[in-house]
Amino acid sequence: AQQQAQVHLLLDTGQRYFFGPISIEQDILDPDFVQQFVHIREGEPFSTEALLELQLALSDSSYFNTVEVNPQRTAAVDFHVPVIVTTEPAKPRRYAIGLGYGTDTGPRLSLSTEFRRINRRGHSILTDIRLSEILQTAGAQYQIPIGNLVSDRLTFSSRIESESFADGGNSDRFTLGASRNEEWGPLQRRLYINYQHENFSLGEEDSTVDFFIPGFSLSQLRTDDVLFPRRGYSWSTDLRGSPGVISNTSFARIDLAGKLVLPLGERGRLLLRSRLGAMSVQDFTVLPTSERFFAGGDQSVRGYDYQTLAPEDASGDVVGGQYLAVGSIELDYLFVGNFGAAVFVDGGNAADDFLPSPKTGAGIGFRWRSPVGMLRIDVAHPFDDSDDDYRLHISIGPTL
């Protein structure tokens, strides 16, 4: 009479199944090491989600080219299902070459080789060479998996660098380091200590210095798309210094950075960026150039040349500062397919006083959502530099 019907569903799910023994078929690593990827315990309720997590962990480890998880339901004993994981090893070495261009760096070339497994405990070695107009580096890393075998590493590294600075400065550095990189709840944590030997010439300063620098950093990335986020954020903080032991001077330094992306309509985005830095140092004149603060460039205040915003010495050469404050607001919009435009305003500076007086730049840009990240071609006007009407900035890469 009410034109309604009540439906009662009786679901007979049958007997609950449980995990039986889990075996991984492979012959390139120690079985007890590979078994550390397995977080499923025999006797736990059977779950396809747990099997998917195991498959992803083994695939992301870079040790295996293919991973297939096969529950043996027909072989279940007392409703305990054995699981067999079959694998195909990845090639023991990986080679990579990269070409790029940025206004800050000029043309750049990178070459790297990864030895994915040099023993049956999954240790690896990564070597790389990076060449550009302002920076040439060569380095090697020895990595030992710890904790979460996919993401956590104990790393020993060495690196040689030669870098050019604004106003004809240069730095030659040699660094030895050890670090512990691991997940820390939702964050990434890095504890490290470096020994750095540097010979630098910057303005009227010309020194050879040695430093032991311990430090730690925290970072987090949350995004809906790594290459082209519509919504997301990233932040990082780094605190390091030297107590002056076996070092030319003592210092403490903190560096904070953050980025935020918000959607505007279906094809637009609002991008916010900021960076703050501060230090306390006993003798700034012998502080390594890599520890000083500079502003200006593609990823800083557009409209100004790379690393030209900072205190100057008596001869007018830029020598870096003890404080840094940079901020940016940008709106981009894809008008046709993957092509669009942007407008932006940047501000900031480096100085020897807290909260540096900002220099401001603003402009417009072309955007292309390429397969490797957003290509940005910007024309920016510096409002506080009478010698320059505009600067062209070119960069490519992920937004966050």
Please describe what this structure looks like.
With 400 residues, the protein is mostly beta strands. 4% of the residues lie in helices and 56% in strands. It contains 2 helices and 19 strands. The strands form 2 sheets. It has a 16-stranded antiparallel sheet, with no helix packed on it. The radius of gyration is 26 Å and the shape is globular. The relative contact order is 0.09.
Keywords summarizing the entry:
400 residues; 3-stranded mixed beta sheet; 16-stranded antiparallel beta sheet
- How many DSSP H or I helices? 2
| Shape category | globular
Helix content: under 10%
Describe the biggest sheet? 16 strands, antiparallel
Could you tell me the number of beta strands? 19
Gyration radius over CA? 26 Å
Mean of pLDDT: 92
Instruction: Quickly give the structural class.
Output: mainly beta
Record the strand order, biggest sheet: 4-5-6-7-8-9-10-11-12-13-14-15-16-17-18-19
**How far do the termini sit from each other?**
61 Å
Low-confidence stretches: none
Order of helical and strand elements: EHHEEEEEEEEEEEEEEEEEE
Please indicate the percent range of residues in DSSP E strands (runs of 2 or more): over 45%
SSE order and pairing:
Blueprint: E1 18-25, H1 31-34, H2 48-60, E2 64-71, E3 80-89, E4 93-102, E5 106-115, E6 124-132, E7 135-145, E8 153-164, E9 170-184, E10 187-202, E11 205-223, E12 232-242, E13 251-264, E14 268-281, E15 323-336, E16 339-351, E17 359-370, E18 373-382, E19 391-397
Parallel strand pairs: 1-3
Antiparallel strand pairs: 2-3, 4-5, 5-6, 6-7, 7-8, 8-9, 9-10, 10-11, 11-12, 12-13, 13-14, 14-15, 15-16, 16-17, 17-18, 18-19
